[in-house]
Specification:
Layout: H1 2-7, E1 23-34, E2 38-40, E3 44-55, E4 64-71, E5 77-81, E6 83-85, E7 88-93, E8 96-101, E9 106-112, E10 117-127, E11 130-133, E12 137-142
Parallel strand pairs: 2-12
Antiparallel strand pairs: 1-3, 3-9, 4-5, 4-10, 6-9, 7-8, 10-11, 10-12
Length: 151
């Protein structure tokens, strides 16, 4: 407990942990794009959120957060948290494993839609300076037809 107090943990004065993914860009939510524009009910769609923000640690939701709001047909809505993602490749040489970053870091959200029709999707990006919204993305969701097995 004393050790934590000396570190300042729990005092409310903690500074964010700095990571190699630190960003000092001005807050701006630019776009949200789905991996497909139409899907079946309950079929997941991966959304990529393009945004700039200022943060030390993208994994600390008090430092930066991305949330996606879905407005369903009929006006009901729900939220899904976004996540920071980095594509990597695993390499195995001489019984030694290494992981190498193979793409640019990006923000994502996976959504399975619950209702058929036009679903409107908007990303909300927050950092310590404020809040920014993307334009709305339209996803068309269809009811799935039951699969019939032929015997």
């Amino acid at each position: 407990m004393l050790f934590l107090a000396l570190l300042g943990v729990g005092s409310g004065l903690e500074s964010p942990v700095t990571t190699p993914y630190r960003s000092t860009e001005k807050l701006m939510a630019r776009s949200i794009v789905g991996s497909k524009s139409a899907a079946l009910v309950y079929e997941p769609i991966d959304f990529t959120i393009t945004a700039a923000a200022s943060f030390e640690n993208p994994f600390d939701s008090q430092d930066v957060s991305v949330r996606v709001t879905v407005e369903e047909p009929g006006g009901t809505s729900f939220e899904v948290p976004g996540y920071f993602s980095i594509d990597c490749q695993r390499k195995l040489e001489n019984d030694r494993e290494t992981v190498i970053q193979s793409g640019k870091p990006s923000w994502h959200a996976k959504i399975s839609f619950l209702k058929e029709g036009k679903n409107l999707v908007t990303a909300v990006v927050k950092d310590r300076s404020g809040t920014s919204l993307t334009d709305t993305y339209l996803s068309l969701i269809h009811i799935s037809e039951p699969t019939r097995l032929q015997l």
